[in-house]
């Protein structure tokens, strides 16, 4: 980097340190030198709460709490940013920063490697997660650079994502192309309302607090159909809906017809064993539900931070939950919650909340319902509904493969 470019970077770094923003970084594959730049010029603790570099696949799997579908992708960068954001919330709690000043940045890169195969693409994905916004910047590197030059580009792109959020001018690194074709940074940003953001910024529900809840945010995909009793939700379909597909809709339609109630689709932003849902992913899931907004059974969407059914029952008392066979097998299993909840306590909680479960078969899934659980369940016979094997996972893979082919 030229001396004048370096002086500009140092100046902008000091401007970032003067902002109130607090950040946790998670960086892999390249660009990690930006961590050193932010720390070596003084006042780094004003901005950086923590930084991790999960470089091996094992380290990445542990950091995310799961094995990603691809290690270098926009989606993985968003997952990294979400985990970093949760870490930032934890580290800043009680230390003064407002929720909107706490951010997580995740970056995953595929840069020049020794003896790499011909045609291997070089790419950088940098994601930002805040209380009410998810953003991602993607740069496909097409110019021929050394590994060191690509590292600098990655570091500057990571810095620019941080600088923009801090209200600091970004660094123009287009001059590094030396007259070669300038690559384009592709950006996606999705924002949500403060009530939705609050669901994410609240303390994550844990298995050690299976009854803890944080409220519901209703979203109308269309003009909501009025429940039979004004303001009450009687029929709830919990799920990730990533994406929603025809089997979900068939279950909803059948349940609505049986109970003569509109269906409210519930999505928990937080999960027990996975990072919370970011707002780009949430937007995609809501779009898949909006395709069915004119269906007579559609009531709307409820967003929560209640990954456990004990929590859902507290949020939606006197309601019926639409579930599949694989789900009902674990709802009443104390191991699914924690040592603080045993089977009698679970049964008592559901009885007190007056909740029931409408159970639909899934293809190749055995249904085991104990006698003391049957009083809470209505099982839909196989001749009325049988899952045709459609999977949200397969739909996602097909979509992502098409996107890769188009790019």
From TrEMBL:
Domain SRP54-type proteins GTP-binding: 276-289
Keyword Nucleotide-binding: yes
UniProt biased composition (Basic and acidic residues): 394-407
UniProt keyword terms in alphabetical order: GTP-binding, Nucleotide-binding
Claim: Nucleotide-binding is one of the keywords in the record: yes
Region (Disordered): 387-407
Gene3D superfamilies: HUPs (3.40.50.620)
Superkingdom of origin: Archaea
Protein name according to UniProt: SRP54-type proteins GTP-binding domain-containing protein
Originating species: Methanosarcina baikalica
């Amino acid at each position: 980097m030229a001396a004048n470019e370096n002086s500009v970077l140092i100046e902008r770094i000091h401007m970032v340190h003067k902002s109130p923003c607090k950040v946790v970084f998670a960086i892999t594959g390249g660009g990690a030198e930006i961590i050193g730049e932010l720390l070596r010029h003084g006042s780094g603790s004003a901005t950086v709460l923590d930084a991790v570099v999960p470089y091996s696949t094992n380290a990445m799997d542990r950091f995310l709490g799961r094995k990603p579908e691809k290690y270098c992708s926009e989606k993985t960068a968003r997952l990294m940013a979400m985990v970093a954001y949760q870490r930032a919330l934890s580290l800043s709690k009680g230390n003064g920063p407002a929720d909107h000043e706490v951010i997580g940045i995740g970056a995953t890169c595929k840069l020049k490697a020794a003896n790499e195969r011909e045609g291997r693409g070089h790419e950088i994905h940098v994601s930002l997660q805040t209380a009410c916004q998810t953003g991602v910047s993607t740069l496909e590197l097409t110019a021929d650079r050394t590994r060191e030059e690509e590292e600098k580009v990655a570091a500057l792109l990571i810095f620019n994502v941080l600088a923009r959020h801090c209200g600091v001018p970004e660094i123009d690194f287009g001059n590094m192309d030396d007259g070669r074709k300038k690559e384009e940074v592709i950006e996606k940003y999705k924002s949500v309302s403060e009530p939705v953001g609050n669901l994410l910024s609240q303390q994550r529900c844990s298995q050690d607090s299976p009854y803890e809840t944080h409220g519901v945010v209703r979203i109308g995909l269309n003009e909501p159909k009025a429940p039979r009793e004004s303001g009450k939700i009687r029929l709830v379909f919990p799920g990730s809906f990533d994406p929603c597909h025809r089997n979900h809709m068939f279950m909803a339609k059948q349940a609505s017809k049986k109970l003569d109630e509109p269906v409210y689709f519930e999505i928990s932003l937080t999960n027990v064993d996975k990072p919370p849902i970011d707002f780009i992913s949430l937007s995609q899931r809501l779009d898949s539900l909006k395709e069915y907004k004119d269906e007579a059974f559609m009531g709307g969407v409820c967003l929560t931070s209640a990954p456990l059914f004990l929590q859902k029952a507290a949020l939606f008392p006197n309601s019926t939950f639409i579930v599949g066979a694989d789900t009902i097998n674990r709802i009443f299993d104390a191991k699914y919650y924690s040592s603080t909840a045993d089977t009698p306590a679970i049964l008592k909680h559901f009885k007190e909340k007056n909740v029931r479960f409408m159970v639909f078969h899934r293809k190749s899934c055995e249904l085991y319902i104990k006698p003391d659980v049957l009083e809470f369940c209505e099982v839909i016979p196989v001749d009325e509904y049988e899952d045709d094997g459609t999977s949200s996972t397969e739909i996602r893979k097909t979509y992502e493969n098409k996107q890769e082919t188009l790019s």
